[in-house]
Amino acid sequence: MDRKPSSEISQRLISGATSGFAAAVALQPLDVIKTRLQQVEGHNESINKKNLSSLLKSTRVYDITKAIIKEEGLRGLWRGTSPTLWRNVPGVALYFTSLQSLRSYMITTGLFLPNHTSNGKSSSEFSRLNSRGNLISGALARTAVGFLLNPFTVCKARFESNLYKYKSIVGALTDIVKQSGPRGLLSGFSASALRDAPYAGLYVVIYESMKDYGSQFNANGNNIPPPLIYSVSGLFAGTTSTLITHPFDVVKTKMQIFPNQYRTLSRSIVTILKNSPRSLFAGSGIRITRKALSSAIGWTAFEELARLLKKTNK
């Protein structure tokens, strides 16, 4: 019996989980600061005074960082790491695995084959598709995984906020269900889907295009190391995709932290625009930095680990 398919899936899961862990732990402080920024900017005046009193008064990154360290210690910058790992480690593993499986299937249909063949030798662990295939595969894989792990995304946002005093993930999940019912576990998913689907689709399109340029550059007699090509491609793709989709990240955070004030996607957008249109880009600088670095770390680690595991198992 041929064990190659199951072996390849295991390699992708291990590579994805490892890259997700590394990026999550290293960049968690940026997520905490971003959440606090979005929590404060353009908040609804109807939020109760108890919550308002716990909001940080300044929206400057330096002041928020200083306040977190002063009130919670240095470990406060890693607040919410536990739900982040619960979301990111299996999330990244499932994303990379489902992305490649979906791309492999799309190739068999003959509808998404690349329009040209790169002259450079590609060491990528992903099947080659045209731009339309890259867009669709990235969007579908990210949305599906996002739906499965949305409960941990809600927990993550609330842990990173200073408005909730959860002691454990189980306690947080229980409280969310108690306060909002099971649907509370899917809070903000509509905004997350509108953020993640175009983000992931655009990311894969840009990432694969950048790698093609790197391969073609090497074909002309240059010798750029594959990890450098992956890192630069990830940085550029992450920065561009994040900037375009950031407003929905703000809406998602509001819906997950203040579920009583931001109940639906349309109502949330109207409320934010009414209070402060500029808040739709609150924390954009922090998120762009985090996403760019996360993409560079995550995708480079995945491709290199997958390639290493493949060589080891030969």
From TrEMBL:
Catalytic reaction list: glycine(in) = glycine(out)
Biological processes annotated in GO: glycine import into mitochondrion
Entry keyword set: Membrane, Mitochondrion, Mitochondrion inner membrane, Repeat, Transmembrane, Transmembrane helix, Transport
Residue ranges of Solcar repeats: 7-105, 129-213, 225-308
Lineage: superkingdom: Eukaryota
Signal peptide: none
GO molecular function: glycine transmembrane transporter activity
Membrane topology value: Multi-pass membrane protein
GO cellular component annotations of the record: mitochondrial inner membrane
Annotated compartments: Mitochondrion inner membrane; Mitochondrion membrane
Family: Belongs to the mitochondrial carrier (TC 2.A.29) family. SLC25A38 subfamily.
The protein's role, per its UniProt record: Mitochondrial glycine transporter that imports glycine into the mitochondrial matrix. Plays an important role in providing glycine for the first enzymatic step in heme biosynthesis, the condensation of glycine with succinyl-CoA to produce 5-aminolevulinate (ALA) in the miochondrial matrix.
Protein name: Mitochondrial glycine transporter
Natural source organism: Wallemia mellicola
